[in-house]
Specification:
Length: 636
């Protein structure tokens, strides 16, 4: 809204005081930015004569190519091949050069301009473009060539783009779709839990395979059906596939029933050794999830079960079983930091004075991450931040500033085109040296583009430059809200770092907005509860407002969960009702175990990140706190 008002004001200035604007056309950088926005406003409104006049005054401006891009985009439906290809060639260094080419190609496909499409098609992984290519073959008489490429596009576990439908229809009508292809796609669809697609596929089967396809679907949605062994007596590759899928699904819900049914099926059907191990592993994991672990015959159990049983042993805090099965993991998995922590935790909890546990903790504690911080706490030693201050001169920053892509990115940021600013930045980064990346991150921080500074510093080569990775942006707002709500400043900063990387204009696909990624409905309810003014959508992009409402929201979560930060963070991400349910299912569980077993991967990683970031910020602010405080070490 603010940007549109500015543009309107600038357009009014053009009409009321044209001489003033004309005098400014070749002046300062600020004046060029003003004129660029005015030109863009003319283009958007279709005032082409005024647009051309203003555009021609910007020939020396670094964003002049973007006017050409936006102009071409505005008339892409009428653009000739020469215009699109010439733009792509002339501005090959712009990220939008390829973007507009792909948009143009999809327009050609939609308009069925097949020969032009084929003349300019380039190999692509984009399924929509690939479908248009095959349709173009078909439309230009190359029927067999078109049909030859369809199975690869059709046999996938999800629905394809609408552009593929006409192609699939003619292929199916030509009787080239086999039941084997349909079966393969049904398996992929159900493996991805795409039940709507699976139901659609059932129409393509004929008996007797239709009955097995229906059975496959039935045991997916109602695994208990597989216990009726009389239904699945036939021994074929299809019946075995149905049985295996049903047993694996049932093992997650009722391991005892799955085990009993599997005992019958494995003696009556000729499963391959690989299938026997896979299904047996699923049953063992199901039993472990229920707290029943392999005993004296553990060495005889398939290695495929190791990962699932190790996870179940951690969830059940069965530490000797966890240590055994973690050691059974493949070395490349076992050596991951996550598993090294749980190996040490298991050994320390099951073996008195385990030297291996302490050595493993010590190695983990040398690094700055979630597991490193937990390991340091287990050993009772200070955390290791591994801070390496960046050393870069003003000369080096200015050298990076002069790079054409950096000039375009920073100008796009200045005029508010954040989408294209990020595109320029992301295309540039892989081409920079480590020193140049540090300089670029510093430059971004210097111009207030904090989120991009953070993301640049997240590069592997810069991970220890903490002043870049963990900035104190909008610090006054966080400090004030921390005082008002009693939420630790380090925790508020950690939430903002995780949610938006301190981008006040951030907006998620779910319409969460601002530094702390608030939904309008949540912000409105919180504001009403604490007596703040009802926020508008625009207000959520205002850092002080956003942080204050989020702080009050977090304060309520802290009160709800006894000041346990992990639970408040989980509820901030996944919602209170889910967290309440997860807590009710695990009373008294160790907090690190509970975090590791949060059902949603996104929330699980979110909580780990927030706790680790809060640990870093607490040290940067000179008020270090334990990774998990005493009252946070277990669930209520």
């Amino acid at each position: 809204m603010k940007n549109s008002l500015l543009i309107a004001a600038l357009a009014w200035l053009v009409f009321v005081f044209p001489g003033a604007v004309e005098a400014a056309t070749s002046g300062s950088l600020y004046q060029q930015r003003v004129n660029y926005k005015i030109a863009l406003d003319h283009l958007t409104a279709g005032r082409m004569r005024s647009y051309y006049k203003m555009r021609d005054r910007l020939d020396d401006y670094v964003l002049r190519p973007y006017l050409s891009y936006l102009e071409l985009q505005s008339r892409l439906s009428r653009a000739t091949a020469a215009e699109v290809l010439d733009f792509r060639s002339e501005y090959a260094d712009l990220p939008v050069a390829n973007i507009i080419y792909y948009r143009w190609m999809k327009r050609l496909g939609k308009r069925r301009e097949w020969q032009t499409f084929l003349d300019h098609y380039e190999t692509s992984v984009d399924a929509e473009l690939r479908c248009y290519q095959l349709r173009a073959f078909y439309g230009t008489g190359e029927r067999e060539r078109a049909f030859a490429g369809i199975p690869e596009l059709w046999i996938v576990g999800e629905s394809q783009a609408k552009a593929c439908d006409p192609l699939f229809e003619v292929w199916i009508k030509a009787d080239l779709l086999t039941e084997g292809m349909v079966w393969d796609r049904l398996v992929l669809a159900l493996d991805a839990n795409e039940t709507t697609l699976a139901r659609y596929l059932l129409r393509f089967f004929d008996n007797p395979l239709k009955a097995w396809a229906q059975s496959y679907y039935n045991v997916h949605v109602k695994p208990g059906a597989i216990t009726r062994t009389s239904r699945y007596q036939t021994d074929t590759e299809y019946s075995r596939a149905v049985i295996a899928h049903g047993i694996k699904r049932l093992a997650r819900r009722d391991a005892s029933a799955a085990s009993a049914a599997w005992l019958s099926y494995r003696s009556s059907h000729t499963f391959t050794e690989a299938a026997l191990n896979e299904v047996a592993a699923a049953v063992l994991v199901g039993q472990a999830n229920e707290g029943r672990f392999p005993g004296s015959n553990a060495d005889e159990q398939p290695d495929e079960a190791a990962l699932g049983i190790a996870e179940a042993a951690i969830a059940n805090e069965s530490w000797s079983d966890a240590a055994y099965w973690i050691d059974r993991l493949p070395s490349e998995v076992r050596n991951e930091r996550r598993w090294q922590y749980w190996l040490a935790r298991s050994l320390a909890s099951s073996t008195l004075a385990s030297e291996r546990a302490q050595l493993t903790y010590q190695k983990l504690a040398a690094e700055r991450d979630y597991y490193g911080f937990l390991a340091a706490e287990q050993r009772g030693q200070p955390v290791n931040l591994n801070h390496q201050p960046s050393v870069v001169s003003a000369i080096q920053i200015n050298q990076v500033r002069r790079l054409p892509a950096v000039q375009r990115a920073t100008e796009l940021y200045a005029i508010g085109d954040l989408v294209n600013a990020r595109r320029e930045w992301y295309k540039l980064l892989p081409t920079l040296s480590t020193v140049e990346k540090i300089a670029a991150a510093k430059l971004a921080a210097n111009i207030g583009w904090t989120s991009q500074s953070v993301r640049t510093a997240n590069d592997t080569e810069l991970r220890n430059t903490l002043e870049l990775r963990f900035p104190l942006a909008y610090f006054d707002s966080f400090q004030r809200v921390s005082h008002i709500t009693t939420i630790p400043n380090s925790f508020l900063l950690a939430i903002a770092r995780q949610e938006s990387a301190f981008d006040p204009r951030a907006r998620s696909s779910a319409n969460a907005r601002g530094l702390m990624q608030l939904m309008l409905v949540t912000a409105t309810a919180v504001a009403k509860r604490v007596g703040l003014a009802r926020p508008s959508t625009t207000d959520l992009y205002d850092p002080p407002i956003n942080v204050e409402i989020a702080g009050h929201h977090l304060a309520a979560l802290f009160a709800r969960y006894g000041n346990r930060r992990p639970l408040a963070a989980a509820a901030y991400n996944a919602g209170r009702s889910r967290v309440d349910r997860w807590i009710a299912d695990a009373p008294g569980k160790s907090m690190d175990v509970w975090i590791e077993t949060i059902p949603f991967r996104e929330t699980r990683n979110y909580v780990k990140n927030v706790l680790a970031y809060a640990q870093v910020y607490s040290h940067l602010l000179g008020s270090p706190v334990p990774m998990l405080q005493v009252h946070e070490t277990s669930l209520p």
